[in-house]
Design a protein that fits this description.
The chain is α+β, with helices and mostly antiparallel strands. It is 22% helix and 18% strand. Bound molecules: zinc ion (2 copies).
Length: 175
């Protein structure tokens, strides 16, 4: 997937035509998004609706494509896969740390973290805080890199390896 694709498509678009009907919408899963096409109308815009019910077009949350996706899911349509924890397919609508407005930062984008962004109040530091938080949550949920192996008689065959042992290996005193 080409990053920045969605953002580029936002440029040079006119105001929405009000006569878009969700009846004729075709919805398809496309990456972590739902691609919506309004068939009958000469609607050249790209509508890619994310899990946060936001469309990539200038209408954003108010786009009829969002409703088309809701209908499609109600009708049992296939769900778009959840992005891996800590991966942003797009910059979020608001900062997950403080709720302020977010802007896209191409220089922070990466293959593993997805779209880079910064927020208007905390800047880049909130971007990193959000990622650290996800990392810590993941650590809590599944602390094991390798689970311990315990024999049926309760004897520990292998003590396991925890993620935080790998991450902070140097700071842990080993007895
Ligand atoms: Zn749209
Ligand atoms: Zn923030």
């Amino acid at each position: 997937m080409h990053k920045g694709n969605v953002l580029d498509s936002q440029k040079g678009l006119n105001k929405a035509s009000p006569q878009i009907s969700i009846e004729d919408a075709r919805v398809m899963v496309s990456g972590y998004f739902y691609a919506v096409h309004f068939g009958y109308h000469a609607d050249s815009r790209q509508h890619r609706v994310g899990k946060d019910r936001r469309c990539s077009c200038p209408l954003g949350v108010t786009c009829p494509a969002v409703l088309a996706v809701v209908d499609y899911l109600k009708a049992g349509g296939a769900r778009a896969p959840d992005p891996p924890p800590g991966y942003f397919p797009l910059a979020p609508a608001v900062c997950p740390v403080c709720g302020a407005e977010v802007y896209y930062r191409a220089d922070l984008s990466s293959k593993h973290r997805g779209a880079g962004w910064a927020c208007v109040s905390g800047g880049v530091s909130h971007y990193w805080q959000a990622h650290t938080k996800t990392l810590q949550e993941q650590l809590k949920k599944n602390p094991w890199v390798f689970r311990p192996v315990i024999a049926t008689d309760g004897k520990v065959l292998y003590p396991g390896l925890r993620r935080d042992e790998v991450i902070t290996e140097d700071s842990i005193s080993r007895e």
